Protein: ATP-binding cassette domain-containing protein
Amino acid sequence: MGWWKSRQSVAETIDDHVHKQEQHKADAGDVTKPLLVVEGVERTFQAGGQPLQVLKGIHMELLPRQLVMLRGRSGSGKTTLLNLIGGLDQPSNGHIFFHGKPFHSMSDDQRTKVRRKEMGFIFQAYALMPLLSAYENVELALRMAGYPGGEWKARVEHCLDLVGLAKRMHHRPFELSGGEQQRVAIAKAIAHRPSLLLADEPTAELDSQMAAQIMAVFQTIIRTEQVTICMTTHDPTILEVADHVYEMVDGKFI
Ligand SMILES: Nc1ncnc2c1ncn2[C@@H]1O[C@H](COP(=O)(O)OP(=O)(O)OP(=O)(O)O)[C@@H](O)[C@H]1O
Structure:
């Protein structure tokens, strides 16, 4: 029974990936159909016994294969919004639709499933396992996503090649520069073929040359992996590569 069950779950995983890839192709083909819609989203926290309204009625859309930036001063609410889009938090009011489905009203478990399969995350600090090589870090992401084992090697090599690290795949994080570590983090985030990549200040720790390299990698993966990227930034020098910039002031777009 154990053998049958594991065979069955591998088959389901493969089916699931095939279905997902077909869905992505269909969605990515229609670039006018939004991948994600945010409607009238508000988020209020309780801070020191007082309500603190951090998001005050946000409307936005992410279309397939777009690079969208959220720009604003520290404290304007960018990370709070990114957390809602990524399903790490839920809005106090308003709606978020992902692939046309009501993300805002799903249970924690449902959102976690959607997040694991459909989304990738990149943070300011690279979140790599220090004792694992670049290759092993990306492979770990595939293992955790339940990606079919027979496809790991080809997919890991492909993703590291895409981010320009084919020759350094057996280096560990401490043997790589900050920009290279961030590129491993990108390979890790896209390995399971998400349709949406969310990045919180991905260039904040990098000098302008390395930041430009990261933006070039983003443009490459949008084209080749058909992913949509939504990122926050303070950096005015990288805004020109965005398809759309949402400027946030005090919890609203201006
Ligand atoms: N869980 C929370 N409880 C209470 N207040 C919070 C919580 N999360 C965020 N805030 C407050 O919401 C406001 C916006 O925070 P947020 O992190 O979204 O801003 P940001 O634009 O991403 O800033 P930065 O660029 O510095 O990261 C801040 O005043 C912050 O203190």
Observations:
- The two ends are 59 Å apart (CA to CA).
- The chain has one domain: 19-253.
- Confidence is low (pLDDT under 50) at residues 1-14.
